[in-house]
Amino acid sequence: MSVDAPADCVFPWLAQMGPDPRGGAYTYDWIENLLGLHMHSADHVLEEFQHPRLGESIEFGGNRLILQHVDPPHALAWRSADGNWLWSFTIRDDGPGRTRLISRNRYRLPRTIDRIGMAPMEPASLVMDQKMLRQIAVRAEQLAARRSATDGSPGDGTSA
């Protein structure tokens, strides 16, 4: 997903992702909450979650996700406690004031029943992922615009 904002305006939204009291997943909260995930997508930066540390964990449905990699403002990756799911985000510079936000999910499904169950989840996951990326982009672009208006900079990490 292309984002018209620098990495330091994108990363805060990733850093705070997770179920309540964290910032949600920026998808369709009503669907996530039907599944009991307790998601409430924040529209502002939650300062208390802006310094992620390796080993932190969040409950995500039936999974406990543990923070495996943090490289602010360019990367963040969570791994399920059982090691069967890796969810990573990469933010790449894409010109002045622009970034490319990439989300990747990798699953190891050792049981046949899990592989069968994942088949209908793949298209749904794609829809949810697209919504998440779009909503993070909107929030990052709004944050960049607010920073630009406040400090007079072009909002691209360079000075005016």
From TrEMBL:
<protein>
    <submittedName>
        <fullName>SRPBCC family protein</fullName>
    </submittedName>
</protein>
<dbReference type="InterPro" id="IPR023393">
    <property type="entry name" value="START-like_dom_sf"/>
</dbReference>
